[in-house]
Amino acid sequence: MSSSTLAKCTSSSHTHTTPLHHPSFVHAATASLSPLPLPQTGKEGNIVKWDLSSGKKLATFYKSRPEQHQQQQQLSSKQKSKGKAKATDTLSDVKGHTDEILALALSTDGKYLASAGRDRRLIIWDADRGEWIKSFQGPMNHKDVISALSFRKSTHQLFTASFDRTLKVYDLTPSVMGYVETLFGHQDTILSIDSLRGDNCVSVGARDKTARYWKIVEETQLVFRGGGRSRIREMLEGGLRADDDPDGGDAERGQGLNGTNVAPKNKERQEEAKSFVEGSLDCVAMIDESTFVTGGDSGSISLWTTQKKKPIFIQPLAHGFNEVHSSTEGLIQTPRWITALAALRYSDLFISGSWEGCIRLWKLDNKLKSFSLVGEIPIPGVVNSLQIISPSKSFFTPRAGVSSWLSSSPTSTAALPADAHPALVVVGVGQEHRFGRWLSVKEGGAANGAYVVGLLPSSDSSVSSRTLS
């Protein structure tokens, strides 16, 4: 998609949002490039499959609760306490999850659905028929919670990330359908992973404050360090930060959402101390094979390129402040951390989410050196997952016998410019964060479910600057 076409799309005044409600806190929702199925999951451990064309529920994959497994666990604990031999594990016979599901991934062709979560199991499903294919668990697989999944585009190669600080690669072609290798390097739990068509991926390691670019074939990795500035660390790495930047300064910083400049290039130390220190990198999204963005608990979104060790642009306080009134300290302001990121592949558009009641759309400049805010879409609740896909125009056209959820949209695809490409944003939201219960958001109509937002370009330039709504 060209930049000019995408600019029209991001500045459009016409969107249509459809909520798909879920009985529990939604962790993930994903769709394929041929967007008919929409799998969705939550903390109750079930997977719900929706039809994006009609908005109807197609099937539900229920959480497994085998009585035999529960009895075996009790017997195993008794035998271990008495020093007897270990009991055999019956989990390998269970065709489903036994705990919370934290991540979903759908292959580009829509054939395979991968799911994983707190039960440390990676399960592969037939997405069309809704049938279990294979479970990966035990030796050679993850030893802790599986937190993120990503299919390499246009292939059946799957990347997985875990709290055990490793990434694993699986080949799901029918002739192989198995584990390939393990990638080591992170020093803390891995919270997010993303990949494109190339044989590489990018991951972020929470409080090790690193983003790692993995080159699978070369068996190497590039390490990009976020967080606060450390003069000692920079000296140990072979030079001061000023050596990396010809201007002798830090990465360029954008404006805060309140309109104030936050830490420009030549800011004095007194002003620099006011900025929030990033203690964790929580999410990542690839723009192209050499450019990606990360978000963390400081509320900043950083733009990276594989050609530089430091971020080339930082947008502080991307989702503003979370305000809490204290009886002793008065008003306490803390930045809302970035809970999800997603990019329209190989374009100049990406989106971010938090829990302020909306998702934000950002546009990169032509040289991929910075980005700016171009729109907002009201989405109540905690944003736990994001995805942007670009289906064909025919998907947005109501068909005979199908009551399209886009039929009420004020914009018809017949009136779109010839070079325009509509896009879909899939948002998984909940009243709680997917990894815990630190947040409880119920204001503004927050509900557990998924929102599907149609971004339809507008040919009317008079409304091109309006906020998406």
Automatic annotation (TrEMBL):
Is Nucleus among this UniProt entry's keywords? yes
Sorted alphabetically, the Gene Ontology cellular component annotations on this record are: small-subunit processome
Q: Which UniProt keywords apply?
A: Nucleus, Repeat, WD repeat
**Which is an annotated GO molecular function term of this record?**
U3 snoRNA binding
The answer to keyword Nucleus applying to this record is yes
Biased composition, class Low complexity, residue ranges = 69-78
Q: Where in the cell is it found?
A: Nucleus
* WD repeat residues: 94-135, 139-172
Q: Where is this region: Disordered?
A: 1-21, 64-91, 238-270
User: InterPro entries from the entry?
Assistant: Rrp9-like, WD40/YVTN_repeat-like_dom_sf, WD40_repeat_CS, WD40_repeat_dom_sf, WD40_rpt
* PANTHER family from the UniProt entry: U3 SMALL NUCLEOLAR RNA INTERACTING PROTEIN 2, U3 SMALL NUCLEOLAR RNA-INTERACTING PROTEIN 2
Name assigned to this protein: WD40 repeat-like protein
